[in-house]
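(Structure overview)
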Amino acid sequence: MKKILIIMFALLATITANAQFEEGKKYIGASLSGLNLSYNGSKELSLGVNATAGLFVADNLLLYGQAGFDHPGKDIDNTLNAGVGGRYYITQNGIFLGANTKFIHSSGNYNDFMPGVEVGYAFFISHTVTIEPSLYYQQSFKRHSDYSTIGLRIGFGIYLRD
């Protein structure tokens, strides 16, 4: 009986998740990156805050813009970033694959262009609100060994109807 209930819950969750990724829906999100879990050669451990807004241009395909602030936690200047990206939600399960690019700027005369990729999961806690854990990688063009970053991001998303 317990297995049947779990299977029914999983099926219901996937049907609900699929309905959220339709063309024309809007997306608003916020995330914490790092959470003292990201690492690169020059910053060691860091924490960042990002805001995202986007639109589903086709079923399962989200295009978005983002802005953020990062505090490295070491003797490195804080940075601001802005960028664009996209996500593809794998049908009926909430797993997404993403690609993005952003421009990084700090007051300490540091600018960088960083493309990145991510894989994550949109876990619905209500009909429109999600918790979105994801793993990400950002590639630095300035100094790969010091600034390229791999990390964990925990986000919250809101999927809005027209």
